[in-house]
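From the shared-data thread, chain only:
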Amino acid sequence: MAGLVEQDFDVTIKVIVVGNGQVGKTSMITRFAKGIFTNEYKKTLAVDFLEKKLYVPGANEEITYLLWDTAGQEEYDSITRGYYKGAGAAIIAFSTTDRASFDALRQWHQKVKDECGEIPMVLVQNKVDLISQACMSAQEAEDIARSLRLKLYRTCVKENLNIQQVFEDVGAEFVNRGGESGLGINSVTSMQQYTTGSGGTQPRVGNSGNLDNQPGSNDKAFKVGGSSTGGKPSSQRTGGKKRLFTQCAIL
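Structure, as tokens:
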């Protein structure tokens, strides 16, 4: 129609990566956002933040990903619950070599549904380079994916296998389902919307990107209270791509 002008709108999606501890959640988002891999395990204290912009062909859009890595350890459960709010997509991860992380998948799936509703989700089997040490069969993984009605990706963060594809998938589904309005969520569109309670400890981002108490021991998570303004976590935008394996099951 004459007189109408096309206008581009920025697409921003908050993505949470959930699952038991030591399944590779932090390594996954670091590989995707910064293009690097580290095999040094540092227990995530509450939540990590990273940010990345990526053009996603399946959505025909450039998407800004706000990547929130929630602590998988149960002692942080009451803290991390608040960070589910406004999530537009979730990645549920388990490790090939950790049976407990596999057995907890239904619990994590239900937790995301309880906190976020029916947002886009995918199931990720990480560390497939260690398939010879697998604690579950390929059939078991495929069966639970079908049962939960989720796509299953088999990934290796070390070799950058299928990492970008996982994030592209949830980003494309988010856009194709109408974004925030289509999913009926009040999405977090900026890291500046992260807040701490007025009576709680002010978090900081340490050298590892983890949130620590300030001051206080790294062995304790900070407290989150009511609404107030808080600090702005660091954001990093880079990329990296490398492909060795081709094994992937999308159900």
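The chain has one domain: 11-212.
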